[in-house]
Amino acid sequence: MGLYDRYLATRVRRSDADLPETVALVITERDLLGDGAYRTLERFFDWAVQYGTDTVVVYVSVLDEEAIPTLQRELESVTAPREIAVRVPDDETTADAPIQISIGLGGQSEFATAVQKLAEDVDAGSLDPSDIDEAAVEEHLVFPADPDLVIKTGAERLSDFMIWQSVYSELYFTDVNWQNFRLRDYLRALRDYQERQRRFGR
Predict the structure, then answer these.
(1) Are 43 and 86 in contact (CB under 8 A)?
(2) Which SUPFAM superfamilies match (predicted)?
(3) Edge to edge, what strands does the sheet with 55-61 contain?
(4) Who has greater pLDDT, 165 or 95?
(5) In a designed cystine with 100, which of 79, 95, 139, 148 is the match (CB 3.0 to 4.6 A)?
(6) φ, ψ for residue 108 (rounded to 5)?
């Protein structure tokens, strides 16, 4: 760790402000094509745990659906300090591991599937329409975690990411591309988060 990184780390640790309990990262399939991309992801997991994060969610935006099986195989084999759950578009099983990875499973599709399941419950008579609330929707989401902090590298757009869960998230955009993402960039995101006043829609 360099001098500047140690300086940032000290500021983060000495701050009275809370650190995010759930951190989400938005990257693209192209980000994972670069040399060392998966090693950077492994380090990201280590940094998140080191600085108090309980849940990490990674959303990989995918343009070429044929790349999904390869991405799934690679991401399921990365080294991480905690259990990993990887989900792809056809997998509707809830991701309940400390590290959750979505490969091409867009937020709109996830939300639409949740609504469809609720409609099926109503049609089957097991759910009254008046009982449908936020909690009922969340029970049917693949990724139930609500990120405190969402980090997007390389560009200022979220790529159809967790549209329900991230409604009150703090968004952090960095011009740094994923292949150049370092500890100092993560620490800067944490400092930015600590300096914000969260309003949760109020």
Answers:
(1) no
(2) Undecaprenyl diphosphate synthase
(3) 84-87, 99-103, 55-61, 22-28, 149-153, 170-174
(4) 95
(5) 95
(6) -65, -45
